[in-house]
Design goal:
Layout: H1 22-28, H2 37-60, E1 65-73, E2 80-89, E3 95-105, H3 111-124, E4 131-136, H4 140-154, E5 167-169, H5 171-183, H6 187-201, H7 204-217
Helix pairs in contact: 3-4
Length: 231
């Protein structure tokens, strides 16, 4: 029997127990206080603004900063996003990394659109005159972006070595392109392995049969995981 708020054991009328879900939390933790969505929103915004102000103050003392950008697509959405990260050395000679922007990219994803998104981010954090280099994937639109961004920044600041070190191509992406080209020679075999793993994992009975065969063969048991093409 559920107790009322006054502690008595009088039965609660049907349908009234679920009117206030916070009673469950209050029962588990006496110090629990119900917070409205408006209050929670205010707290989140206040926390964001405090961190934003703190990061701006930190970046003011930075002389040079490196930027990395990467594109990603949500598995639940069609939209693509670009994350911009800043890397720099603080006053104690410690390497720091901060996410500066997470922005939705226009559908066409042209070089000029990427340039605009990056430059707006740099202006927002007031670091457009502190850029040492930018690391980007090897894509045609990125080449256009770098060319436009380099010309824009060169108007108000002197780039290191005249901009020779401004664009750094992503080594991991280059390595991945090499590996993918090599794996393309055995594309059919890889596809068969992928489909076999999906087939076995799709059913508990198939997975059990597969594990039984593995034990009989004396092979070390391993998890069947589908590979990630970008890793």
């Amino acid at each position: 029997m559920a107790s009322n708020q006054d502690g008595s054991n009088e039965p609660i009328p049907q349908g009234e127990e679920s009117e206030d879900p916070s009673l469950v939390f209050k029962f588990a933790n006496a110090e629990f206080e119900k917070v409205s969505r408006i209050t929670a929103r205010k707290h989140c915004i206040a926390f964001y603004e405090a961190k934003n102000k703190s990061l701006k103050a930190l970046l003011m003392g930075v002389k040079k900063i490196n930027i990395t950008t990467d594109m990603g697509k949500s598995s639940h959405q069609i939209a693509e996003y670009m994350v911009i990260t800043g890397h720099f050395i603080n006053s104690k000679w410690k390497l720091q990394k901060r996410v500066l922007s997470f922005v939705k990219v226009p559908p066409l994803r042209r070089g000029v659109d990427v340039t605009d998104a990056i430059f707006k981010c740099l202006q927002l954090w007031r670091i457009e005159n502190k850029i040492f280099s930018i690391y980007m994937d090897n894509a045609t639109y990125n080449d256009v972006c770098i060319r436009n961004l380099k010309n824009t920044l060169a108007r108000n600041t002197n780039l290191v070595l005249g901009g020779q070190l401004f664009h750094v191509r992503c080594c991991a992406h280059i390595l991945n392109l090499l590996v993918q080209h090599g794996l393309s020679q055995i594309k059919g075999i890889i596809e068969n392995v992928r489909e076999s793993i999906k087939y076995v994992n799709h059913s508990d009975s198939r997975l059990k049969t597969f594990c039984d065969i593995v034990k009989k063969m004396g092979v070390k048991e391993r998890k069947l995981v589908v590979d990630c093409p970008t890793r």
